[in-house]
């Protein structure tokens, strides 16, 4: 099957099927990503304009500027200093490690349902106050009102039931706590997402359309990411991975260019 058709069929499938396929796919890909110490899988965020604001990164973090800037875009929305933070669907842990080192929360726990990813995170990101656990976004294994902030990057579109995820986040947040979320949606799905947020009890404090920033990041990273994927993955996984990571020329890049896909960031608060 044509890779683009495979990708589209995947997102046209039922929520249960999409959830199951995603879990199996990322478990498989994680085995290959370990070989190259890949810590970021997000699309990234490029500062735009003639005088863009840039963050000062350590030399070792500079090669990951684009994906790091997406996390900074979210984390700088509020003051995380001294807060208890949970990243839901932390993936390879690069974003959690960045927030831990640059934004100084009191504690940061990353959860992800992929056991290979959690094993990698525990081995790679050994930092005080940072820990990783296997966990499900739709059944978060913590008591109520345990965290000041939850972070969720490029994961909610893959959940079987976004409303369940939002309800779980509401439950685990302390009063006044925040959900910092960034993700893509097709244009028709945006109305549904707004309805799900409204029904969750979380209040929209800030919402930004960052499609242009993400698209520019994708374009700037194209050569590097294609080279990495070609080295790591067998051919039958390579082309699907190109579309899932959103490399330039992918279904995502096309959607962001035409406006059929929108990338949004949110600051949501439990009032």
At a glance:
By secondary structure, this protein is of the alpha/beta class.
The quaternary structure here is single chain
Order of helices and strands: HHHEHEHEEHEHEHHHE
Overall pLDDT: 86
Largest sheet: 7 strands, mixed
Verbal overview:
Helix content is 46%, strand content 20%. By secondary structure, it is an alpha/beta fold. It has one domain (3-270): 3-Layer(aba) Sandwich (Rossmann fold), CATH 3.40.50. The chain has a seven-stranded mixed sheet with strand order 3-2-1-4-5-7-6, with helices on both faces. The radius of gyration is 17 Å and the shape is globular. Residues 1-18 have low confidence and may be disordered.
What keywords describe this structure?
single chain, alpha/beta, Rossmann fold, disordered N terminus
Please give the structural blueprint:
Blueprint (H helix, E strand, L loop, with lengths): L2 H10 L2 H19 L31 H11 L8 E5 L5 H10 L3 E6 L2 H10 L5 E5 L12 E7 L8 H11 E14 H14 L1 E8 L1 H22 L2 H11 L5 H8 L2 E10 L1
Parallel strand pairs: 1-2, 1-4, 2-3, 4-5
Antiparallel strand pairs: 5-7, 6-7
């Amino acid at each position: 099957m044509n890779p683009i058709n495979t990708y589209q069929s995947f997102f046209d499938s039922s929520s249960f099927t999409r959830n199951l396929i995603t879990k199996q796919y990322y478990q498989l890909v994680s085995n290959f990503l370990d070989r190259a110490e890949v810590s970021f899988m997000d699309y990234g965020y490029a500062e735009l304009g003639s005088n863009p604001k840039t963050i000062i990164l350590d030399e070792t973090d500079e090669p990951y500027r684009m994906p790091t800037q997406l996390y900074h875009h979210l984390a700088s929305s509020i003051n995380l200093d001294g807060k208890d933070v949970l990243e839901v669907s932390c993936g390879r842990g690069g974003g959690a490690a960045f927030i831990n080192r640059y934004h100084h929360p009191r504690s940061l726990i990353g959860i992800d349902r992929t056991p290979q990813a959690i094993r990698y995170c525990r081995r790679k990101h050994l930092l005080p106050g940072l820990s990783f656990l296997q966990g499900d976004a739709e059944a978060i294994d913590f008591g109520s009102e345990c965290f000041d902030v939850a972070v969720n990057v490029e994961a909610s579109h893959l959940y079987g039931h976004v409303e369940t995820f939002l309800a779980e986040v509401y439950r685990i947040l302390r009063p006044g706590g925040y959900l910092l979320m960034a993700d893509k949606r097709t244009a028709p799905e945006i109305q549904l997402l707004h309805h799900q947020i409204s029904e969750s009890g979380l209040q929209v404090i800030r919402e930004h359309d960052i499609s242009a920033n993400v698209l520019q990041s994708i374009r700037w990273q194209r050569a590097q990411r294609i080279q990495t994927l070609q080295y790591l993955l067998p051919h039958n996984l390579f082309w699907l991975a190109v579309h899932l990571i959103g490399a330039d020329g992918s279904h995502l890049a096309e959607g962001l260019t035409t406006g059929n896909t929108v990338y949004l960031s949110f600051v949501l608060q439990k009032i």
